[in-house]
Amino acid sequence: MATEKMVELKTDVSHSSLYNPDLAPTSLQERNWGSYNFAALWVSMAHCIPTYMLSSGLIALGMNWKQAIFTITLGNLIVLIPMLLNAHPGTKYGIPFPAFARASFGTLGANIPALLRAGVACGWFGINAFIGGTAVNNFLIALFPAWKNFGGDIIIAGLSLPAMITFIGFLALNILLAYKGMNCIRKFENWAAPLVLVMTFMLLIWIVNEAHGLGPILAEKGKLDTLAKFFPVFVPSLTGMIGFWATLSLNIPDFTRFSKGQKEQMIGQAIGLPPTMTIFSVMGVVISSATVVVFGKAIWDPVDLLLKFSNPLVLAFSLFGIIVATLSVNIAANLVSPANDFSNIAPKRISFKTGVLMTGVFAVLMMPWKLLSDPSVYIFNWLNVYSGFLGPIAAIMIADYFVLRKTELNLEDLYKEQGDYTYSRGVNVMAVIALAVGVGIALIGKIVPSLAWLFNYAWFVGFGASFITYIILMKIASAQEDVAVLEE
Predict the structure, then answer these.
(1) From CA 19, how far away is CA 422, in angstroms rounded?
(2) By the 8 A CB rule, do 185 and 177 touch?
(3) Whole-number pLDDT of residue 2
(4) Phi/psi class of residue 145: alpha, beta or left (left: φ > 0; alpha: ψ in -120 to 50)?
(5) Which residue in 174, 141, 173 sits closest to 303, CA to CA?
(6) CB of 363 within 8 A of CB of 126?
(7) What's the rounded Cα separation, in Å, for the pair 286 and 55?
(8) Which parts pass through the membrane (predicted)?
(9) What is the pLDDT of residues 392-423, one digit of tens each?
(10) Residue 252 in 3-state DSSP?
């Protein structure tokens, strides 16, 4: 797989309604990302506030530091598998996620997984923009206390006027940087990655010192001291860990289409994702455990924790780190994909930049501050629900590409209205049925209490059900076509 020859578009398909320059396959010259670029990408994306809140949220839910680290590490090792599998076609053919989805869902049907993925990305984009905006807001309050009361009692959708202004302002900054293009994003990730790690390490040293060393922190036993108590929290939390990066496991071709080769992206991702998530999560777990010792309760929001600093310079420097961390993950993880996904709806009318603007609008409408209202909402509802949609999509794409097509695609036909991937009026009905089966089984436990265990395993059961269903349906369809040909 690592030495497989990369494919380039040989014929002109620019006249097709399915083509625009943003969705076009990259040329061999454009594929210049090496292992460091992918490792840096993951370091900067993993070193983000949602990752910190993910790990600290487990502490807030009652886990001790060992249980939390085990859950996070296992989840990221599992999600690395579909990540590397879906990365392969991006590197080989230079295609983004929406174009790759056309092979299994059809040239028109690809909009179904693309829009589902885009919806999740809009939510994540809003979450990160809100976190960054909150950091900016708190920084302004620290410098100018009167800013807190600006606008008086004006409340907009549950937010004060200063909070809404900084949220929208930070969101606009993300959009501005995304407009600079993928090379700008790559350069930003390269220098942001080490800075965020240094900032978190400084916070770690401070809180451990306040807790009088690691001894009291490691002595915290947590509330889930028996298997009967731990397992009901562990299972949905593990699903949440996988769901956390299930988004990127789908649209990773958006990045690997720029890779120099399979070896570079595989090494870079293997180095960048599991170790980085584990290290950063350990820091988050230790910091959150220390807050129990120092403040008597787990503080799972790092912005709230940083407000404990009394020195304005230290506070300003720390909040700057949060701003950089949030920008680095938000642009790479939550703007590139939905921009491409929205562009896929009407490639001739919606450009990448227009898709970026659409993402920003939907992010505001989703009111992300409500998703961050409580760790149980964040982990058990937001992460687990959408993992029930994304697991089945990943299963169908992987089954189609590796099991049925043996990694061979007709690159030109991915951009043609009439070709190998037209299916029935542009939609592969078998993929839609398999998706419905997987999502239904994954999420039925949310509605039927007696089947709640299925929802706890949402990503796993959805992936398995869609994987098996899709292969069976496609083989039946293929056999029927063969019979029809013989009869003719």
Answers:
(1) 15
(2) yes
(3) 43
(4) alpha
(5) 141
(6) yes
(7) 9
(8) 39-61, 68-85, 97-116, 123-148, 154-179, 191-209, 229-252, 273-300, 312-333, 354-371, 383-404, 425-445, 451-473
(9) 999 999 999 999 999 999 999 999 999 999 99
(10) coil
Length of the chain: 488
Q: Would residue 159 be called left, alpha or beta, if left means φ above 0 and alpha means ψ between -120 and 50 degrees?
A: beta
CA dist list (Å): 177 to 181, 331, 364: 8, 8, 18
Domain ranges of the chain: 28-374
Output the six-digit token pair for 213. Answer: 């060393």
Rounded distance between C-alpha atoms, residue 473 and residue 310, angstroms: 63
Helix (H, G, I), strand (E, B) or coil at 271: helix
The Cα 33–Cα 91 span in angstroms is 10
What is the C-alpha to C-alpha distance for residues 457 and 391, in angstroms, rounded to an integer?
10
What is the structure's pLDDT at 274? 84
Instruction: Spell out the residues 6+ positions from residue 16 whose beta carbon is closer than 8 angstroms to its own.
Output: 415, 416, 417
Please report the DSSP string for 295-310 in residue order: HSS----HHHHHTT--
CA 151 vs CA 148, 155, 166, 252: distances in Å: 9, 9, 13, 42
Distance CA 445, CA 454 (A): 5
- How far apart are alpha carbons 242 and 81 in whole angstroms? 11
Tokens of 201: 């390490």
Query: What is the percent of the chain with per-residue pLDDT over 70, rounded to a whole number?
Result: 88
DSSP for residue 248 = H
CA distance 251 to 258: 13
Do residues 58 and 248 touch, judged by C-beta distance below 8 A? no
**Which residues is 33 bridged to in the sheet?**
259
Cβ contacts of 275 within 8 Å, gap of 6 or more: none
For residue 293, the one-letter residue type is: V
Tokens of 439: 């999502």
Q: Give Rg (Cα) of the chain.
A: 23
Find, among 435, 429, 434, the residue nearest to 480 by Cα: 429
Contacts of 98 by beta carbon, 8 Å cutoff, 6+ apart? 23, 110, 111, 114, 340, 341, 343, 344
CATH second-level architecture of 28-374? Answer: Orthogonal Bundle (1.10)
CA distance linking residue 379 with residue 375, whole number of Å: 6
CA-wise closest residue to 67 among 183, 244, 241:
241
Segments of the chain with pLDDT less than 70: 1-4, 47-50, 52, 181-196, 215-218, 220, 300-301, 303, 310, 373-380, 482-488
What three-state secondary structure class fits 417?
A: coil
Run of H or E residues at 358: helix 352-365
Q: What is the pTM of this model?
A: 0.82
Torsion of CA 64, 68, 71, 74, to 10 degrees: -120
Q: 219 exposed, middle or buried (CB, 10 Å; 0-12, 13-18, 19+)?
A: exposed
The two tokens of residue 450 are 């007696």
Which amino acid, 402?
Answer: F
